[in-house]
Amino acid sequence: MSEEYKNLTIKDWALEDRPREKMIKKGINSLSDAELLAILIKSGTKNENAVAIAQRILSSANNNLNELGKLTLKDFIATKGIGEAKGITIMAALELGRRRKQTEGLTRPRIQSSQDVIDIMQGQLADLPHEEFWVLYLNRANKVIDQTRITQGGVTGTIFDIKLIMKSALEKLAASIIICHNHPSGNPKPSEQDIRITQKLKEAAQIFEIALLDHIIITDSECYSFADNGNL
What is the 3-state secondary structure (H, E, C) of 26-37? Predict the structure, then answer.
């Protein structure tokens, strides 16, 4: 933000520089991250306009939208000028973005590689502060029939029931499954427990002639595929 606008309300800005008017005139792609966030915030405080508040919020997340998506409601309302209603509005917008990413992934005709799975699941899991375990159920053409969260745990781990996974796979008449879970630590390397449960699930699936195609560990940057690394 230029110094001339720093202490002005947005209403005092030149018309073409106001975020809403700028979007209408130049298109939404012309807006910076702070300007987009300012539209959600709507209004500033006596001493600071909405764009300046948005810039402070982004700064608290290292100007990284992935990091912004990890902030909690408590984090948002800790920012001066952001109350509960504005914090909820921002979180709702971020969640819509995640769900759009997930929906785009599910429109793929079939799963052909680990990257296809990452494209579906990374937006859903990468920002979570706790572990979640998901299963993708595929038909014989490798198209996704369904995806289900089996369980969620704490920061350091989650435990799932193999019987429940196999029950769901049989009910959905799945030909194969892919399992995914996230590591909030950001380290994609599988733990010994990850390796053990993958092998147990593979053996259980084989009894019912269901293939375990992959186990993918998701983080907000790197991801790990058991299949790509020869661990299946």
Answer: HCHHHCCHHHHH
Task: Record the tokens describing residue 216, joined without a space.
Answer: 């993918």
Sequence ranges of the chain with CATH classification 3.40.140.10: 110-225
β-pairing, 211-218 with 144-152? unpaired
Stretch among 37-51, 55-69, 95-109 having the lowest mean pLDDT: 95-109
Angle at 128 between CA 126 and CA 131, to 5 degrees: 95
26 contact partners, CB below 8 Å, separation of at least 6? none
Spatial separation of the C-alpha atoms in residues 58 and 38, rounded to whole Å: 11
Q: Which residues, at least 6 apart from 171, have a Cβ–Cβ distance to it below 8 Å?
A: none
CATH architecture observed for domain 110-225 = 3-Layer(aba) Sandwich (3.40)
The Cα–Cα gap between 99 and 66 comes to 14
Q: Which pLDDT score is estimated for 5?
A: 45
Task: Please answer whether residues 132 and 158 qualify as being in contact, where contact means their C-beta atoms are separated by less than 8 angstroms.
Answer: yes
Q: How would you label 196-208 residue by residue, b for 16+ Cβ within 10 Å and e otherwise?
A: ebbeebbebbeee
Task: Write out the DSSP string of 210-224.
Answer: -EEEEEEEE-SS-EE
Of the two residues 54 and 18, the one the predictor is more confident about is 54
